[in-house]
């Protein structure tokens, strides 16, 4: 889809800090993260909601999200928050799973979440590399 930001990232026409990718899925850092390491896991093919996702892609998408969730502990988190919006509150209409590192006392309460920023592009790049390395080793 031409106007989809995530399709542009998947195709490589829009730069992103990729954590990992394979034939079915691409994961990259959220540019407006809840916390450093907040990653979006998306199917390569454009599907807007979970209901639109073909059954054969459910396993690849969620197995990658599960593995990334486990990698967050190696990244220094105590756990993770995994979420997906469908249409409502879905800022980009391309199915994506949020995998967010969590620690006790991090300030995330209910659905009113503070946002953070990366120090700079190199901070984003090094975070993506580190998460990708942890992901590959899990």
Summarize this, please?
The protein is of the alpha+beta class. Helix content is 32%, strand content 18%. The chain has a single domain, classed as HIT family, subunit A (2-Layer Sandwich).
Order of strands, main sheet, comes to: 1-2-3-5-4
Largest sheet: 5 strands, antiparallel
CATH C-level = Alpha Beta
Q: Which stretches are low in confidence, meaning pLDDT under 50 for 5 or more residues running?
A: none
**Helical segment count:** 3
Number of strands: 5
Q: Tell me the CATH architecture.
A: 2-Layer Sandwich
Query: If you compute it from the alpha carbons, what radius of gyration comes out, rounded to the nearest whole angstrom?
Result: 14 Å
CATH superfamily, please? HIT-like
* End-to-end gap: 33 Å
- The secondary structure category is alpha+beta
The total number of structural domains is 1
Strand content: 15-25%
What does this 3D model show about the protein?
This protein is α+β, with helices and mostly antiparallel strands and 138 residues long. The protein has one domain (5-137): HIT family, subunit A. The chain has helices at residues 5-11, 55-74, 121-137; strands at residues 18-21, 25-29, 39-43, 79-83, 97-102. Strand 1 (18-21) and strand 2 (25-29) form a beta hairpin. Helix 2 (55-74) packs across helix 3. The chain starts with a helix and ends with a helix.
Key words describing this protein structure:
about 20% strand; HIT family, subunit A; 3 helices; 5-stranded antiparallel sheet; about 30% helix; alpha+beta; single chain
Lay out the secondary structure.
Elements: H1 5-11, E1 18-21, E2 25-29, E3 39-43, H2 55-74, E4 79-83, E5 97-102, H3 121-137
Antiparallel strand pairs: 1-2, 2-3, 3-5, 4-5
Helix pairs in contact: 2-3
